[in-house]
């Protein structure tokens, strides 16, 4: 089961660093609602100390197969968006381009395990409410099973093993 897509935009920010190994740092700074008239990336601020780009038209769909990942997200102290991005050249400018946005903790973990860069932003109360309702409908944890007591806790099984061990070693 999938829900209707949540269409969003991500604002990415580039700030200079005082490091000779990495002269600047890109980070997502805000999730915004879809801006209808904008399809291509748009520079919002072009300042040497603070450059910002809006990437619009990103769809986030809730899937029942990711319900456990949503549960883990809403169970966290601060539920969040997970933004996977890569550096790309767009019209001769290197930009940090969001490639995937999810609300699933598990999906984000898989992306990071695959070597992708994933950053987080806090989710709004409205999104957390929507995610909680979806999770309530589709997340059904596996029931806990009783474990059989192992033989090393005593009983006839241990005595039998001791006798067998004594017979084996000439005891």
UniProtKB/TrEMBL annotation:
Superkingdom classification of source: Bacteria
**Which residues lie in Basic and acidic residues bias regions?**
162-171
- Annotated stretches, region: Disordered: 140-171
Q: State the InterPro entries in the record.
A: DUF3305 (IPR021736)
Q: What is this protein called?
A: Uncharacterized protein DUF3305
What taxonomic lineage is listed for the species of origin?
A: Bacteria, Pseudomonadati, Pseudomonadota, Betaproteobacteria, Burkholderiales
């Amino acid at each position: 089961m999938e829900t209707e897509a949540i269409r969003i935009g991500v604002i990415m920010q580039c700030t200079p660093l005082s490091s000779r190994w990495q002269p600047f740092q890109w980070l997502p700074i805000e999730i915004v609602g879809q801006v209808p008239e904008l399809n291509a990336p748009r520079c919002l601020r072009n300042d040497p100390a603070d450059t910002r780009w809006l990437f619009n038209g990103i769809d986030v769909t809730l899937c029942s197969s990711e319900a456990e990942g949503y549960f883990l997200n809403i169970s966290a102290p601060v539920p969040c968006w997970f933004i996977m991005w890569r550096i790309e050249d767009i019209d001769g400018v290197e930009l940090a381009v969001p490639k995937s946005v999810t609300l699933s903790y598990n999906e984000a973990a898989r992306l990071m395990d695959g070597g992708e860069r994933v950053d987080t932003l806090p989710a709004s109360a409205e999104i957390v409410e929507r995610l909680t309702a979806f999770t309530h409908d589709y997340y059904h944890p596996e029931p806990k099973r009783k474990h059989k007591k192992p033989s090393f806790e005593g009983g006839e099984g241990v005595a039998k093993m001791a006798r067998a061990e004594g017979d084996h070693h000439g005891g």
